[in-house]
Design goal:
CATH architecture: Alpha-Beta Barrel
Strand content: 35-45%
Distance between the termini: 24 Å
Structural class: alpha+beta
Shape: globular
Number of strands: 9
CATH superfamily: Regulatory factor, effector binding domain
Order of helices and strands: EEHEEEEHEEE
Number of domains: 1
Radius of gyration: 15 Å
CATH class: Alpha Beta
């Protein structure tokens, strides 16, 4: 597991859609089955939205509105500087700037769940910081390529200095 780093992340604007799922830390984990089709749908909308090929995609995860234990909600979207006039039925999510602990997952998507579990297992042990409520991020920028076994994506959680 790479060392967890902490940095200030800039604000982001996403256009996309969301789905409820059970996260990687839940015994009911179903993220791949539920979220995979939403990611696929979003991938198919890049061209119709007029976005460049290497547009950053972000999964922004939070506790679901439901009171069901372990249920999460992930907003899957493209990061944009300007919100298109025609959203093609998508929603907008504003992510405020903030302090985040993060790691970079290097490898295929097959190992992503293990990287997420490892990150969260170690997150509360970083000295001088503690996790806070907020959006947890998976960032797929220009360094990410699903076909490349050395692909890089970022896993991040909001933190504060203590």
């Amino acid at each position: 597991m790479p060392t967890i780093k902490v940095a200030e992340f800039l604000a982001r604007t996403l256009i996309g859609k969301s789905a409820d799922f059970y996260g990687a830390m839940s015994p009911k984990f179903n993220g791949q089955e539920v979220l995979g089709p939403v990611w696929g749908e979003m991938n198919s909308l890049r061209e119709p939205l007029g976005l460049p090929e290497r547009t950053t995609m972000v999964g922004a995860t939070r506790t679901a509105a439901s009171t069901e234990p372990d249920l999460m909600n992930q907003f899957i979207g493209y990061e944009v500087d300007v919100v298109p006039a025609d959203l093609k039925g998508l929603e907008v999510l504003e992510i405020p700037a903030g302090l985040f602990a993060y790691v970079e997952h290097v490898g295929s998507m097959d190992g992503l769940v293990n990287s997420v579990r490892g990150f969260y297992a170690e997150l509360n042990s970083i000295e001088g910081f503690e996790q806070v409520a907020g959006l947890h991020l998976e960032i797929y920028d220009a360094r990410f390529d699903m076909a490349d076994a050395k692909s890089i994506m970022t896993i991040a959680a909001p933190v504060v200095r203590v």
